[in-house]
Amino acid sequence: MQLTHKIALCLTPERAVYFTCACGAERCVWNWALAEWNKQYAAGRKPDAMALKKQFNAIKYTHPQWLDGSGQTWIKTIHRDAHAQPFADLAKAWDRFFADIKAGKKAHALQFKKKGRCHDSFYVANDKFRVSVKTICLPKSGEVAMTEAFSNGWQPQLPYPWRVRPVTAELQQRGSLP
């Protein structure tokens, strides 16, 4: 059983901009991957998430979609995990979709993500960040203060060593609580 614990972060305005951009990058990559998957599937091929990731990696620094107004690659400013994880998420979603169809359950086709209408978040692998008692150090954003101390007080007593799992940073609407 996996347990999660949400801890709100105290973001500076600059870090809030970075988090928004990272969420936008993950959403943009998801939409690109889903469109490419649908295009390949319609052409009669069997799409593969890792092949799509290789295809994306080949174009992400040159394709106009991934360049800003000055011709620079905007995706370079975002940590790699934020634009690599959507491919694994897409593969899991399609596996779940086809498993539901096979089991006779109602299956919903995958949707494109739209800003403000989706669960904005980005992924950071557990070997890419450090946690101290009151801060978390995330790649490309540095030390970020947490609203509560990270301690073993909230974790269950397990028969095996406890470890920190990957982090999913999630944006909340203003005025809402985590």
How would you characterize the overall build of this protein?
This protein is of the alpha+beta class and 178 residues long. It contains 3 helices and 6 strands; from the N terminus they run βαααβββββ. The protein has helices at residues 13-42, 49-59, 80-102, and strands at 9-10, 121-124, 130-131, 135-138, 142-146, 167-170. A 4-stranded antiparallel sheet has the order 1-5-4-3, with no helix packed on it. α2 packs antiparallel against α3. The longest helix is centred in the first third of the chain and has 30 residues, at 13-42. The chain is globular and about 50 Å long.
Summarize model confidence as the mean pLDDT. 83
Shape: globular
- The order of strands across the largest sheet is 1-5-4-3
SS element count, helices: 3
Cα end-to-end separation? 22 Å
Which SSEs are present, and which pair or pack?
Blueprint: E1 9-10, H1 13-42, H2 49-59, H3 80-102, E2 121-124, E3 130-131, E4 135-138, E5 142-146, E6 167-170
Antiparallel strand pairs: 1-5, 2-6, 3-4, 4-5
